[in-house]
Design brief:
Blueprint (H helix, E strand, L loop, with lengths): L2 H46 L2 E9 L2 H15 L8 E3 L2 E3 L3 E2 L1 E3 L7 E11 L3 H12 L5 E13 L10 E7 L10 H13 L14 E7 L11 E2 L1 H13 L10 E3 L1 E8 L6 E9 L5
Parallel strand pairs: 4-10
Antiparallel strand pairs: 1-6, 1-12, 2-3, 5-9, 7-8, 7-11, 8-9, 12-13
């Protein structure tokens, strides 16, 4: 074997190792690049097809919202003090419920339809349809009933109450005894249904939510019983609801609002996405 052959054979393993290192580096670079491109594509897709938790409602004037909060703090909340049972000299926890009262008056509103999670990609078409619908509805007036305290799921009964609310006094204005606000709610559902939002099957009751009854402590889904003092007060007010001397000053309804519900540890906050003006032409 000559010297040249020996030299080639001697360095061949080093050349092979260099090629392998280059191939490994290329594969690593390709893998990282592909992962980055995939992540960017997913990020772009997510940003385009994000969703928002939305509902349609009537926003309330300041004097109505302030009145609701005052009624809670000065009248309802003091009646909602948990009672302590005493048996054989031992104090036990109350079996009556307390209510999670809504004290942020900026959150009070009258819901027309809850939409839930909405894909933002349909918002342009949805808002266009809602705006067109509102242009065919005339402005009207509402009056909060100063004594009408309703409950859900049974609006006129405190039985198994989950939600406490104030109702509205609305004068009927057609032969079918269907008020303007109910007609507006139906028009809203007629407009949103083609976009995949189901109609509400329960009867529509215009209301302002004041608080939610806490659930049973044993993990059951059913609500606690209302405090007897609070229950008696609500029952008495239900009997007098609808009389003319319990109405607050009427306020005009000039638009429908599309509102986003934003969840946080402090509770939900609301952001108005768009307002749709009702028809102003005679």
């Amino acid at each position: 074997m000559d010297k040249t052959t020996c030299c080639v054979d001697k360095h061949t393993p080093r050349i092979d190792n260099s090629i392998q290192i280059m191939i490994a580096a290329f594969r690593l670079f390709y893998t990282i690049s592909f992962s980055l491109m995939t992540a960017m594509a997913l990020s772009t897709s997510t940003s385009i097809h994000c969703s928002k938790r939305l509902f349609l409602a009537i926003e309330l004037p300041d004097f109505i919202r302030h009145h609701c909060r005052e009624r809670i703090t000065q009248q309802l909340q003091p009646l909602d003090q948990p009672e302590v049972a005493v048996t054989n000299g031992n104090r036990k926890n109350a079996t009556t419920a307390s209510v999670n009262w809504i004290l942020d008056d900026s959150t009070y509103h009258c819901t027309l339809q809850f939409l839930g999670s909405v894909d933002t990609s349909i918002l342009p078409d949805l808002t266009l349809a809602l705006g067109e619908m509102c242009r065919h509805i005339s402005p009207f007036e509402l009056s909060l009933d100063n004594s009408k305290i309703g409950c859900f799921p049974h609006f006129d009964s405190t039985k198994n109450a989950r939600v406490l609310c104030f109702g509205f006094h609305i004068d009927s204005n057609n032969k079918n005894d269907t008020n303007t606000l109910t007609k507006l709610s139906r028009s809203v559902m007629d407009t949103t249904e083609p976009f995949g939002f189901p109609r509400e099957k329960r009867p529509f009751h215009a209301h302002v939510t004041l608080g939610r009854v806490k659930p049973m402590r044993n993990g059951q889904s059913r609500p606690m019983k209302l405090n007897p003092s609070l229950k008696q007060f609500i029952d008495e007010r239900m009997e007098t609801a609808g009389t003319t001397d319990t109405k607050l000053q009427p306020f005009p309804v000039r638009h429908v609002s599309l509102i986003e519900s934003i969840s946080s540890q402090q509770g939900p906050s609301y952001k108005t996405i768009e307002r749709f003006d009702l028809c102003t032409e005679p």
